[in-house]
Design brief:
Length: 637
């Protein structure tokens, strides 16, 4: 319960023994005799002033000088698909529990840190990453913290707001650009011109990124102060803001701020240590996918970060990741998403068997030797494709894994090859995209395949920029065709602009960018190229193949759960921003801005089969069907 006597529920206790604890306000005379440091009370009140009364809870122990402070971090700003991919409950706050000395507070021992969601006790791996980040941050800050130091910082701030203080000299020239909300909801844009152009939900990017523009704002008591998530401060003249700040300027301002911003910047201490922890948590949560879960150093990818958090390729981190047991469990993944694991293995095999494997089989696995945990059995610095192929050939089919005890299946694989199961673990855990097999009721019927998947790979920051650009310029859907051997890398590195790089396979006749088409036959042609096939089939050839495949009697059920063949073709359906940057050369489109293309769906075909070659995503009936599925799959997962 908090300092006003609000009670905790048993679920909020995170499984601790309540019988040894007394709740403040009802605990009796024993706890009443304990000294409570006034700076702790001041910091708790600061959290309530800036957030809400429910943003902090306090639990005292009746017989010892300890106090648990629970900070409730709202994560409602995460999109549904991000929350699903990260396995968090976006409607429930993340609890950061700090245990302080009740009487000494900042002068006492360094607080312990726990991170959890009350209803998400299993599989909350994101909590482990955030706990490590906040524990490190607390240790670094604790070296310089004391109650006296914090009090001096707060007195310095209060001196600004006195009758003759500095703030009076320029307060009239400032307006409220983006106020700190009293509720956990997202900040609203205060420009009436913008409200007519942009709806509020599409401008959640400032809070979502939280490497956002520093701004002048009012707290609930009416005082003006500066909240700096980074070192920049943006002041907007009140008299001219509605007339001069256009939507375009706001977006440019936002994007330019991101270049100089950084989620690791240390928030101000002027509102207390607890507020500082909350602000730092809010900065870090939306960008967890951009940092290694072990060393907390930023990933370096060709096309920016991906959707799911992951370990980096540094050997020390790989060893730590293995020994900590954080790696995604293959047993759970096979049980909950066997079709997806089946697809991941097929993509890995296609890339490994390609003549271009030295280029496209990227990343190469980092797998710890189960017989020698201090050695890498598969090492990107010492690539051995033959050994990798042998281990992959020993990975049993996912169909077999689902038909018996997983432990027995693992034992069989270990007998065949002790590296088979560790490799399967890596294939699953290294996937940084969110893939879900679509149920029949949510499949696009005109694609004529049962192997249809929701495919999201954009990190929160890119998705936010995409939605903002979509509101400005609109969007449409188009296909992207690429041989299945390339998708092992795409799922881990993103859909990259390969023009004029070693990854380029088909040429760049229309310039540099990501190639798309509204016509299915063109993308089907690209999807079949690879493994020595370098001539695109014509549309007539694709139509003939499609008609021939539809007249051949099926030897197995059409709606097979798993892939039956190693001869696979695939295409993706992407959403693309229709800005002036999108270059249309007839039915071949080129988008030079990678942020303007997001994958949405993925379709797989077997044994040379292709879908309908006459699909045009610009036809109203096709768009209507796409939106029917999009509306339920992407925006509500």
């Amino acid at each position: 319960m908090d300092i006003k006597g609000q009670c905790w529920t048993d679920e909020e206790s995170d499984g601790e023994n309540e019988s040894e604890q007394f709740l403040y306000g009802i605990q009796g005379s024993c706890a009443a005799d304990l000294y409570r440091h006034p700076q702790l009370d001041a910091d708790i009140e600061a959290v309530k002033d800036i957030y809400t009364d429910s943003a902090v809870s306090v639990r005292e122990y009746g017989t010892i000088d300890d106090v648990d402070i629970d900070l409730h971090i709202n994560i409602g700003f995460l999109d549904e698909e991000v929350a699903t991919a990260w396995k968090v409950i976006r409607t429930e706050p993340i609890i950061v529990r700090l245990r302080f000395s009740l009487s000494q507070y900042l002068d006492g021992p360094e607080p312990s840190v726990e991170v959890f969601q009350p209803s998400n006790k299993e599989g909350f791996s994101l909590g482990l990453q955030l706990k490590k980040i906040l524990s490190t941050f607390t240790s670094q800050q604790w070296k310089h913290l004391s109650n006296e130091f914090l009090k001096a910082q707060q007195e310095k701030r209060h001196s600004w707001f006195k009758a003759g203080g500095t703030i009076k000299k320029f307060r009239a020239g400032l307006s409220i650009f983006s106020p700190i909300p009293k509720s956990p909801s997202l900040p609203l844009i205060q420009d009436t011109v913008l409200k007519g152009k942009l709806s509020v939900p599409e401008l959640r990017v400032t809070r979502l990124m939280n490497r956002s523009i520093s701004c002048t704002m009012k707290n609930p008591k009416g005082e003006l102060f500066s909240y700096p998530p980074n070192s920049q401060t943006v002041a907007v003249p009140a008299a001219r803001a509605p007339a001069q700040i256009t939507t375009r300027q706001l977006i440019e301002l936002f994007f330019s701020s991101q270049a100089g911003g950084h989620c690791k910047n240390i928030p101000t201490l002027e509102y207390g240590f607890l507020v500082q922890i909350m602000k730092y948590s809010e900065q870090r949560i939306p960008t967890l996918n951009e940092y290694c879960v072990v060393c907390d150093e930023q990933h370096v990818f060709q096309n920016g970060s991906m959707l799911k958090p992951a370990v980096c390729t540094r050997e020390l981190c790989v060893f730590s990741f293995y020994t900590l047991g954080v790696m995604s469990g293959a047993a759970e993944e096979v049980a909950t998403g066997a079709e997806v694991v089946d697809l991941l293995v097929a993509m890995c095999r296609a890339a490994l068997e390609s003549p271009r494997k030295s280029i496209i089989f990227e990343p190469y696995p980092s797998v710890v030797d189960p017989n020698d945990p201090k050695t890498l059995a598969f090492n990107p610095k010492k690539k051995n494709y033959e050994r990798l192929q042998k281990a992959l050939d020993s990975v049993m089919s996912i169909r077999e894994m689902t038909q018996g005890s997983y432990l027995e299946i693992k034992k069989q694989m270990d007998k065949l090859d002790p590296l088979a199961h560790p490799l399967l673990q890596w294939i699953i855990s290294s996937n940084r995209s969110h893939i879900v097999k679509l149920p029949l009721s949510r499949q696009l019927k005109f694609m004529h395949t049962s192997h249809q998947f929701l495919l999201l790979s954009s990190p929160p920051a890119k998705e936010a920029r995409f939605r903002t650009a979509k509101k400005l310029y609109g969007s449409t859907f188009a296909f992207h065709g690429s041989h299945i051997e390339n998708w092992h890398s795409v799922l881990r590195n993103g859909l990259v602009n390969a023009s004029y790089t070693k990854l380029q396979l088909h040429g760049a006749a229309y310039g540099k960018g990501i190639y798309l088409s509204p016509i299915s036959s063109i993308s089907f042609g690209y999807s079949g190229m690879g493994k020595g096939q370098h001539r695109m089939p014509t549309k007539d050839e694709l139509v003939q193949r499609y008609n021939r495949m539809n007249t051949i009697p099926q030897s197995r059920p059409i709606q097979s759960r798993f892939l039956q063949s190693r001869n696979l073709n695939c295409i993706a359906l992407c959403e693309v921003i229709t800005s002036k940057d999108l270059q249309k050369h007839g039915n071949i489109w080129v988008c030079p801005v990678s942020d303007h293309v997001c994958t949405r769906f993925f379709f797989v075909y077997e044994d040379g089969q292709v879908g309908d070659a006459n699909i045009n995503t610009q036809e109203p009936k096709v768009q209507k069907e796409i939106m029917r599925v999009i509306g339920t799959q992407i925006y509500s997962s």
